[in-house]
User: Which sequence fits this backbone?
């Protein structure tokens, strides 16, 4: 039989880390060497940096999956947070595995804006909507990311006669509605946009393409 100490080491969770998009923040980990055993259970705790007490996350106490949603627990987005995970198998508990320090405001990835395109004559009107955070107003609508960040929108045009990679930046700024003029009739144009955070020098991925023939 394996010693308990060996089993403790073999089931200890690996690579405990936060993943965050638009302030939706989840803790992920990988099973230890023996963690592929189907009946391994995981237990998650969290705390704000500087607090002495760890809190149990009830929804992630004795779970089989390798992910735990801590969006609600990390809603103080300027504060650094930690998560930690331990595993249990056959009555043996591993030691805790600790995440790196995670500050949601600084580390979350920002998603692209939602883009709507309408056309009039020789111009295209682009409407942009910021991604939404998971946090809600009193009335229940989700708070847009513009509440937490000084966001700029970057709008690019792709002329479909040219190469897909040939994206031209036609606008950068805060306007939610922009007009692109002097386009050629009968040509197919596609619009993509990004969200850009100057303060963190970070951009989102591109939005999905919205295409139009004038």
Assistant:
């Amino acid at each position: 039989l394996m010693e308990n100490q060996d089993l403790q080491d073999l089931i200890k969770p690996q690579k405990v880390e936060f993943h965050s998009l638009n302030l939706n923040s989840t803790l992920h980990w990988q099973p230890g060497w023996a963690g592929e055993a189907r009946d391994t259970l995981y237990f998650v705790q969290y705390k704000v940096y500087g607090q002495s007490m760890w809190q149990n996350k009830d929804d992630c106490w004795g779970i089989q999956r390798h992910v735990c949603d801590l969006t609600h627990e990390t809603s103080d987005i300027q504060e650094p947070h930690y998560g930690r995970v331990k595993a249990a198998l056959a009555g043996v508990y591993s030691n805790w595995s600790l995440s790196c320090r995670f500050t949601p405001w600084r580390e979350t990835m920002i998603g692209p804006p939602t883009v709507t395109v309408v056309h009039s004559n020789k111009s295209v009107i682009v409407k942009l909507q910021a991604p939404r955070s998971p946090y809600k107003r009193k009335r229940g609508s989700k708070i847009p990311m513009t509440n937490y960040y000084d966001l700029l929108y970057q709008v690019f045009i792709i002329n479909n006669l040219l190469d897909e990679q040939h994206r031209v930046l036609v606008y950068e700024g805060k306007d939610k509605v922009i007009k692109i003029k002097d386009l050629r009739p009968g040509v197919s144009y596609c619009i993509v946009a990004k969200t850009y955070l100057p303060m963190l020098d970070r951009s989102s991925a591109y939005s999905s393409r919205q295409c139009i023939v004038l």
